[in-house]
Amino acid sequence: MFFDRPIPYKLIKANFSGFPRMIKIKQKFPDEHITDIDEAVREEMSKLPLPDLKGKRVAVTAGSRGIPNFMECCRAIGRELRARGAEPFVVPAMGSHGGGTAEGQKETLAALGMTEETLEMPILATMDTVVLGRSPEGVEVNCDANAYAADYIVVCGRVKPHTDFRGPIESGLCKMMIVGLGKHRGAVSFHKTGGIHGMSERLQSSAKIFIEKTNILFAMAMIDNAYHQTKRIEAVMPQDVLTRERELLKEAAAAMPRIAFEDIDTLVVDQYGKEISGAGMDPNITGRFLFAPEMKAPGYPHPNKIAVLRLTEMSHGNAAGLGIADFVCRRFAQELDLGATYTNSLSSPLCMAKIPMVMNNDLDTIYAAASACGKTDMKDVRIVRIHNTLELDHIWVSENYLPEIEANPNIEILEGPVDMKFNGEDNLEDLD
Question: Half-sphere exposure (CA, 13 Å, Cβ side) for 421?
Fold first, then answer.
């Protein structure tokens, strides 16, 4: 592979006396969440006017994101369906993820803890689809062949702001239908038809066709809180999806965590992964958006440079979306699977597959990003380091944020200031 050997660049570190010391802080967010997933699912399904399900085959969707309690929610739905006499099974609903193969998509579910044993249901995976129609914008609407052949479909997914576009409906139930259950063919058609700025409209018009042409029993929406816990589980009848998802999106956006600081010279992201975000690291957290990388939206952080250190194992080498970073560590690059990355990227904007500058180790990666920010003294660089864009309760920030920390009642200092610690190979000790 390209990055098996050290890269022979010459990184000039004249007069480098070290990075600013770092402070570990706790960011405080509302923590309302559900503690009993089975009971929440049972209560929601009890509210629905469900038909006689005895002997009916029901497909339950499972996606490729690391959604808290998603396996438990799917399993609980299966249990409740069996209690009503149904024969539920799971279908992977993840567009072109998993390398665009049926086996790859089953492996993606397994990496997320979703197997036939844990779900207590068979998993039927295929990339074959049934064409349901074409939206007014020209999107070919597809449905997973196994799901279409079932008597009913249960659409289960998380509602949250999308990583690439804005609108009244973004990432959630409608996207699970059109992109997830659309498989590779449906995902390509959706992303290739029109530009990014019309995605929400195309999603809604395509979802109308999907709902009309399939037998959706109900949809189960999930919302996370800022601590990556399940804040809400809500069952929605198919005729209400397009209206209810709009309100759920507002709640989901308000519940997301935030980095408390907008002015950031260098944002260091320890982990990048497809189970973390469709973009590997959520632009709603980093403030760096694929559709407008230079945009400085109010209320979002404004990092000058972004350095990424590791690709998660659950990504299976898929780094589609990495183009919004500026520097990556060679250990990240060594894990790249260009086939998986390009398969995913070819179903969406091609710029998602750009590879940033690759540095040999963590120290060089962070130094290159920090030195590119235009500060004459490295000690003046404002650095924020996060584990990933899902876990923001504990983060590291450089000591030059201290006045802002002391002025914010929702921040608590846990440790530091201390120096970043690197091992003999110049990699961060707490990442090895």
Answer: 8
What whole-number distance in Å separates Cα of residue 145 and Cα of residue 373? 50
Amino acid letter, 13? K
Closest CA to 163 of 178, 151, 147, 175: 175
Q: Is the omega angle on the peptide bond into residue 122 within 30 degrees of 0, that is, cis?
A: no
Q: Is the whole-model pTM more than 0.85?
A: no
Closest CA to 249 of 332, 114, 158, 312: 158
Q: Is 294 helix (H, G, I), strand (E, B) or coil?
A: coil
Whether the pLDDT of residue 229 is over 80: the answer is: yes
Exposed/middle/buried for residue 229 (C-beta within 10 Å: 0-12, 13-18, 19+): middle
pLDDT score recorded for residue 1: 59
- Whether the pLDDT of residue 303 is over 90: the answer is yes
User: Among the residues of 276-419, which ranges form H helices?
Assistant: 283-286, 330-334, 338-345, 362-371, 402-406
> 191 or 21, which is more confident?
21
Paired residues of 269 in beta bridges: 308, 386
Contact assessment for residue 105 and residue 353, using Cβ atoms and an 8 Å cutoff:
no
DSSP string, 41-105: HHHHHHTS-----TT-EEEEEE-SS--TTHHHHHHHHHHHHHHTT-EEEEEE--TTTGGGSHHHH
196 token code pair: 């990014």
Q: Answer whether 325's CB lies under 8 Å from 289's CB.
A: no
Strand order across the 302-311 sheet: 357-359, 327-329, 302-311, 263-272, 383-386, 394-398, 22-27, 411-418
Pull the structure tokens for residue 371: 């030195």
Residue by residue, DSSP assigns 221-252 as EEEE-TTSSEEEEEEE-GGGHHHHHHHHHHHH
Q: How far is CA 11 from CA 231, 358, 365, 383, 428, in A?
A: 46, 12, 10, 20, 18
pLDDT band at 116 (very low <50, low <70, confident <90, very high): very high
At residue 192, φ and ψ (nearest 5 deg) are -90, -10
Pairing of β 129-134 and β 140-144: antiparallel
402 token code pair: 């201290």
Please tell me the distance from the alpha carbon of residue 90 to that of residue 75, in angstroms, as a whole number: 9
Rounded CA-CA distance 125/93 in Å is: 9
